[in-house]
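Quick one:
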Amino acid sequence: MKTSLRIRRHPPAPSLRFSSALSIGNFDGVHLGHTAMLEQVCAAAREHDLVPSVLTFAPHPRQYFAQVNHRPELSPPQISGVRDKLTALAQTGIEQIILARFNRQMAEMSATDFVTQLLIEQLGTRWLLVGEDFRFGRQRAGDVELLKKIGLQHGMQVQTMSDVTDAHGHRISSSEVRSALGAGDLNHAAHLLGRTFAMSGHVIHGKKLGRTLNMPTMNMRVTPRCAARSGIYVVRVHGLGSNPLPGVASLGVRPTVEDDGSILLETHLLTSNPDAYGKLIRVELLQHVRDEEKFPDLPTLTAAMHADAQHARSYFALHGL
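Output:
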């Protein structure tokens, strides 16, 4: 019988531990390659009466080392914020998510301790699925061979999975999703993800400039290193009623009116103007219209915004909602 989802920031206390079928990874984007792995985890959990589980990390290990080494340019762009990643993981049938803090202690843990202390003792791992090139522990010293050796000693079955490819034989990976989003190719991103790319967040107060231009917007913070290309998008908005709403959105730093470099997703709804402040919305990005641009003055910006809105109306007239 399916249990409720458990999301843990730390390994569970002994009284709360369950024997688990586990996969480990960053799962950025939770694309079709990830879901194929997690389907195997859930199947193994049913077969062996285990809890289907995921061990993932925040921040991304590459982000942590980029910060430690003062090389921010080495930090990978993020496909999903934490909320969207956990939501997508939960939709695969996973019942336990351990969102471990990747810090100095984690980075310096030996490969052997990672397996015996974290995976086996603290997470009760009895069945484990990882990629064929999985590395772990201090200086990435551990490999699949070590996993299998220790697993054999402690009753943990270790399975590996090769890369997942699409119908054309192309590898499905987070890197490929980032490349597609960076190019504004939302169709290819959706092909890799198995769903339309979307971002969720709470609507926050802005400077209300859109109201003065007769184009009120809902502002939403996004992950600081968002993989999606900055610019104007045709969007579909969920969370403000029983049906999705059509809109047009600007993702970026608003160079015409701001200079602080903060990234926002500003969405203008085409058919309504509900009171959305504080509400959690999900915005699907359907089409990249144009790149972000700095305009010489507000009238030029206003004209461009109205042209973008008209483009979005034409899109929905052709494609429907």
